[in-house]
Amino acid sequence: MIIPSYTIIDAFIKMNYERDDVIGDLCKDAQADPNFPIGKYLEQLEYFRQLGMAYPQLQDAVLMFYNELQNFRMF
Fold first, then answer.
1. What integer pLDDT is reported at residue 5 of this predicted model?
2. pLDDT tens across 21-55, in order?
3. Which of 1, 9, 40, 43 gives a 20 to 30 Å CA spacing to 33?
4. b/e for 5-33, b at 16 or more Cβ within 10 A?
5. Residue range(s) defining the domain that contains residue 64
6. Any domain includes 3
7. Which residues contact 54 (CB under 8 A, 6 or more apart)?
8. CB of 38 closer than 8 Å to CB of 2
9. Residue 75 has pLDDT above 70, yes or no
10. Which are the contacts of 10, defined by CB distance < 8 A and separation ≥ 6?
11. Minimal CA–CA distance to 36: which of 22, 23, 46?
């Protein structure tokens, strides 16, 4: 039996995807993306960095995501 591993980013997304703001939108998009690297912290950080690079209109949202993630505690 393989036990999946999850990161703090996975937990943050799971706990924030229902929000009605840009953070919730980013979480929903990541959850819906089959290429989102679940359980791979460094790849997840890179995913959001690349998102901000590819879509300049999302840069503020990605920075907000990172800022909230820094203060996020699962317990």
1. 79
2. 999 999 999 999 999 999 999 999 999 999 999 99
3. 1
4. eebebbebbeebbeeeeebeebbeebeee
5. 8-70
6. no
7. none
8. no
9. no
10. 38, 39, 44
11. 46
Contacts 24+ apart (CB under 8 A), 37-45: 38/4, 38/6, 38/10, 39/4, 39/5, 39/6, 39/7, 39/10, 40/7, 41/7, 41/8, 41/9, 44/7, 44/9, 44/10, 45/9
- Residue 22 maps to a domain: yes
Contact 44, 14 (CB under 8 A): no
Residue 19 lies in a domain: yes
Q: Work out how many domains the chain is built from and give that number.
A: 1
